[in-house]
Amino acid sequence: MRKLSLPILLFISFSFAGHTQKIDIIQNRGGGMLYNQKKVASEAAPAKYEKVAHGSPYFSDSWMPGEVQMSEGTIQNDMQIRLDLLEGAVLYMDHGQNMTVTTPLRSVSIKDPVTDKTYTFHNSAFYQFPENMATGWYQLLVDGKARLYKRIEKKLTEETVFNSAATEEQISTSDQYFIVLDSDYTRIKKVKDIPDLLKSKKEEVKAYIKSNGLSGQSETDFSKTIIFYNSLFAK
Q1: 84 and 152 Cβ atoms separated by less than 8 Å
Q2: Taking a C-beta distance cutoff of 8 angstroms, is the pair 103, 173 a contact?
Q3: Which of 61, 67, 84, 222 is the most buried (most CB within 10 A)?
Q4: CA 107, CA 87: separation in Å to the nearest integer?
């Protein structure tokens, strides 16, 4: 009887940024190596935002299950993640300790366990965003021939407490939307601006917007319009 050759599993640990990174190396029958990176490089997250009285720096204050994609494409999953959009930091829980990822990341996906909805963010440093656009994390709302992104901008201000010498911090949030088509990034503010950007199907998109009563600057209406446009190219 012919014997089957089983993969050989080795464990190698590397230490950097004050945190151990474990890599599983599987040697297959062809002699090649398959790498499954288990830990991103990270460091203990410092305490901050104690003076924030209103607003939040995070996409969500709750820790959510998710995964990250590193610069070379390796994915680490089974993480509890919180995304700091004020500083552009990705945090995760490691045995009860709050850690900050120091490995360059291409994308972050987190899943709301209550709604079962997944939120995906792209790092502008890896997606050829124009130099005149703010760097950081952009939420991918619609993917396809045309992509729709949302930038959730966080701003921190400090104000003096009324009748006191003490100060407190506030964090405000505002949203910006961008359409990416043929490597062109264009900010949109209203639904009516979209057809002129989607020139090859301009009339079809205009008719769709009119027939569905889409207007204003609703994220839902933006998404519906781009999804319809992309459907026109579906095979």
Answers
A1: no
A2: no
A3: 222
A4: 16
Number of helical (H) and strand (E) elements in the chain, helices listed first: 2, 15
Coil, helix or strand at residue 192: helix
Burial (CB count <10 Å: 0-12, 13-18, 19+), residue 40: buried
- Residue 13 has φ and ψ, to the nearest 5°, of -115, 135
The encoded tokens of residue 213 equal: 């009563």
Collapsed DSSP state (helix, strand, coil) of residue 175? strand
Residue 228 in contact with residue 209, Cβ under 8 Å? no
Site of tokens 């987190």: 110
Note whether 148 and 226 are within 8 A (CB).
yes
Is the pTM of the predicted complex or chain greater than 0.90? no
Q: From CA 56, how far away is CA 142, in angstroms rounded?
A: 25
Q: Alpha-carbon distance 208 to 212, whole Å?
A: 6
Segment-wise mean pLDDT, segments of 10 residues, the chain, 235 residues = 40 36 34 45 73 93 95 91 96 90 94 96 89 91 96 92 81 96 92 95 97 94 98 87
The candidate with the shortest Cα–Cα distance to 91, out of 82, 104, 78, is 82
Determine contact, residues 105/94, Cβ cutoff 8 Å.
no
